[in-house]
Write a structure and sequence with these properties.
single chain, 270 residues, alpha+beta, Thrombin, subunit H, six-stranded antiparallel β-barrel, 2 helices
Length: 270
C-alpha cells in the first residue's frame, strides 16, 4: 500500500473513533453539518436530472410531432391528388354527357372523335383527331364541339387520323352574323400565346353597327363552307373604324380543354 493511502486510511479510522466517542448531541450536530453541506449538491443533481429528463422528453415529443407532421403532409398531398383526379373525371364526365346530349339532339349526321394531339408550334391553329377516311371523314368537313360550338374544319386526312384547322387560326375565315341584328361579317382567328385565352375578330361590320357586349355570333352559311346557325361565340367588345366596324368575339368553345369533337359528315336531317 502506498504511504499516502495508508495515511488516509489511518485518518479515516481515527475520524470514526472520534465520532463514535462523541456524545449523541455532538454526533447529531456532525450529521446536520454534513447533510447541510451535501444537500445543495443532491438537490442540484435532482434538478439536473429532472431537466435532463424533461429535455429528452421534449426531444422525443418533437420527433413525434415531426413524424406526425410529415405524415399529415403526405396525406394532404395524397388527398390533393385524389381531388384533382376527381375533378378531371368530373370534367370528363360532364363533357361526355354534353357530347351524348348533343349527338342525340343535333339534326346533323356526325362522327364522334377524340382530340389526340396538339402541336406546340401550331398552338391555336390545328389539332389532330382519331378519325379519318375509314370513319367516313372527309376534307373540308365541319368540326364542332360537344356544346355545338364551331371548332373548325378538316384540312388534312389520313385513314384513321385527321388534322383540323381551328377557327382561331389567323388564316381561318368564317362568314358570320350577329344575332338580333342585321350585321354580317367575316370572322378571323387571332394570334395567342400558349395558355392565353383565345379570341376572334369579326370584321367588316357596319361602321356604326348596333352591336353590344353579350350578343351571340353564328355562322350564316354563305359560301357553303360551314353550315348556317352554328354557334361561334359572344361579342366582347366593338370598335368603330373610319370605314367599317370590328368586334372582338369570345369563342363558344374552350379550345384549351377541348377533348371531344364531332365531324359533321352530312347535311342536316329533316
Amino acid at each position: 500500500m502506498r504511504p499516502l493511502n495508508f495515511i488516509a486510511l489511518l485518518l479515516f479510522l481515527a475520524g470514526l473513533v472520534w465520532v463514535f466517542t462523541r456524545s449523541e448531541t455532538t454526533v447529531r450536530e456532525i450529521q446536520r453539518t454534513y447533510y447541510s453541506t451535501v444537500s445543495p449538491l443532491i438537490s442540484r443533481g435532482t434538478d439536473m436530472e429532472k431537466y435532463a429528463k424533461d429535455f429528452v422528453a421534449e426531444v422525443d415529443h418533437s420527433k413525434d410531432l415531426e413524424e406526425r407532421l410529415e405524415l399529415a403532409l403526405r396525406e394532404r398531398d395524397r388527398f390533393k391528388l385524389i381531388a384533382s383526379r376527381i375533378q378531371e373525371l368530373e370534367l370528363a364526365n360532364n363533357e361526355l354527357r354534353g357530347a351524348l346530349n348533343f349527338q342525340k339532339k343535333t339534326n346533323f349526321d356526325v362522327v364522334g372523335a377524340q382530340v389526340i394531339r396538339r402541336q406546340p408550334l401550331t398552338w391555336g391553329r390545328t389539332i389532330e383527331i382519331n378519325r379519318g377516311a375509314k370513319q367516313n371523314v372527309g376534307v373540308s368537313l365541319t368540326v364542332v364541339a360537344g356544346n355545338g360550338g364551331l371548332v373548325g374544319r378538316i384540312y388534312q386526312l389520313g385513314d384513321d387520323v385527321s388534322s383540323v384547322k381551328l377557327i382561331t387560326d389567323e388564316s381561318s375565315r368564317v362568314s358570320a352574323r350577329v344575332e338580333g341584328s342585321t350585321e354580317m361579317g367575316i370572322l378571323e382567328g387571332r394570334r395567342a400565346n400558349f395558355g392565353e385565352a383565345q379570341r376572334l375578330r369579326l370584321r367588316y361590320l357596319s361602321k356604326n353597327a348596333n352591336v353590344r357586349r353579350g350578343m351571340k355570333v353564328y355562322t350564316d352559311g354563305r359560301g357553303k363552307l360551314f353550315p348556317a346557325n352554328i354557334p361561334i361565340g359572344t361579342i366582347e367588345d366593338f370598335e368603330s373604324g373610319p370605314v367599317a366596324g370590328e368586334a372582338i368575339v369570345i369563342p363558344a368553345v374552350d379550345f384549351q380543354n377541348l377533348k371531344t369533337v364531332f365531324v359533321i359528315s352530312g347535311t342536316p336531317q329533316t
